[in-house]
């Protein structure tokens, strides 16, 4: 485990929510990798079909929220030229997804300030996105919140202070979140590498190790 991963894990000692109104027992892990045979039956290009799949999964597992996806190889991105094009084939997911209904409150797990925000409105992209900056001692790092509602970006200001557990946004629906079944993409970055309001959340195989080192498993912090 890298030094940053160890530091990250030390910041919290128990379940630390990033969505409001949910407890640890409300979550069920979900596999959305290319190895899951259930996905072969699904029309992955349809956000509506995927929503039905997620809702059935939650019902069958008696859960309110599904989570997972870190370092997961997925076929979901083949539908979008943003990821699947002659220059690159990005299919390794390096954030943590939490599948809950649109309108769900998104909260900061730690004290922070708003670093940047943007509506990444390409098909298959994040849609409205917020990046927070966290400072603990002499160490800075960043968290990204993707697939939000457009309303979440209204009246937002760079530098705004945020308390741990404070609501920062609401989850968007498929018509504003890049055309996905509603979910939060949560990612941690040690170095933003000059990015503002955006950072790759899906990478190609040859870049995997570099990105995983910079973007450790968010569950080290959340402890779902």
UniProtKB/TrEMBL annotation:
Residues 92-191 form the M23ase beta-sheet core domain. It holds the Pfam family Peptidase_M23. Coiled coil: none annotated. One of its GO terms (molecular function) is metalloendopeptidase activity. It comes from the Bacteria. This is Peptidase M23. It comes from Christiangramia fulva.
């Amino acid at each position: 485990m890298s030094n940053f991963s160890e530091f990250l894990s030390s910041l919290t000692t128990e379940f630390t929510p990033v969505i409001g109104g949910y407890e640890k027992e409300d979550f069920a892990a979900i596999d959305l990798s290319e190895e899951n045979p259930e996905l072969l039956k699904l029309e992955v290009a349809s956000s509506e079909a995927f929503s039905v799949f997620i809702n059935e999964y939650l019902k069958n597992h008696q859960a309110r929220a599904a989570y997972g996806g870190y370092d997961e190889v997925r076929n979901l991105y083949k539908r979008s030229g943003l990821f699947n094009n002659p220059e690159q084939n990005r299919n390794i997911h390096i954030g943590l997804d939490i599948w809950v209904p649109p309108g769900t409150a998104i909260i900061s797990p730690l004290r922070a300030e708003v670093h940047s925000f943007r509506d990444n409105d390409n098909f298959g992209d994040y849609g409205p996105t917020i990046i927070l900056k966290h400072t603990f001692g002499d160490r800075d790092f960043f968290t990204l919140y993707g697939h939000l509602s457009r309303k979440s970006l209204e009246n937002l200001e760079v530098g705004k202070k945020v308390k741990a557990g404070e609501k920062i946004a609401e989850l968007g629906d498929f018509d504003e979140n890049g055309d996905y079944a509603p979910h939060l993409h949560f990612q941690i970055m040690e170095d933003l590498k000059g990015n503002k309001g955006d950072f790759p959340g899906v990478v190609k195989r040859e870049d995997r190790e570099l990105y995983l080192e910079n973007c450790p498993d968010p569950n080290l912090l959340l402890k779902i």
